[in-house]
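Subject: for your reference before the review

Hello V.,

The reviewers asked for a structural picture of the protein, and I figured it would be easier to keep everything in one thread rather than splitting it across files. Below is the amino acid sequence we used in the manuscript, unchanged from the supplementary table.
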Amino acid sequence: MPVPPLYTIGPIQLLLNQIPEDSLSPIGYSLWKEETECRQWLNSKRPNSVVYVNFGSVAVMTPQHLVEFGWGLANSKFQFFWVIRPDLVVGESAYLPPEFVAETKERGLIASWCPQEEVLNHPSVGGFLTHSGWNSTMESLTAGEPTICWPFFADQRTNCYYTCMEIGNDVKRDEVEMLVRELMEGEKGKKMKKKAKEWKKLAENATDPHGSSPINLDNLVDQVLLRKN
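And here is what came back from the structure prediction:
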């Protein structure tokens, strides 16, 4: 049986960004209202100094996991921007202790949702703690951001295996702190940042007007029209 042709097209985010903004103005795909106030906060931070944290639109966690992630971020002493969805915690509202809020009020920002692609491309962001969903994986790749992952289900563990450092299912604050420090200032983190920039360049090359993505898309269209005729 002959093997069907395979046409690799993407990353879609970069292809979408080539369309004039006026053509996209009516289009929106965010599940929640984006809190854009984070822009001003990020603008006030030094380059590569902020850890961005977002576990996507579906992943959930226990109250204990939330607290462990929180204290891991706090104990790392790095600035962070953390997106906490209203339904992130299973069966109840997300709650962080007052001690955590007091400890991090000068270097942490929490929002319920944000324009993620814009945040990942902001100069102040130096790393991404994620669930490794496909959209987040591709957006971090095209932004050139190194990642720490906490995969939840489906393809996320596979995505994590190929792209980042992994946090175990039994979340502990000491492990979160250690991985954040390693990502932001360690030797492994420096290598990851270098590799992430290389991936970004490859993605840009693929979506260049003369890159593999437009060429493959043209070949796909030609093949479909050929079969139709």
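For the response letter, the relevant points are probably these. The longest strand covers residues 125-130. The mean pLDDT is 89.

Happy to draft the paragraph if you're swamped.

O.
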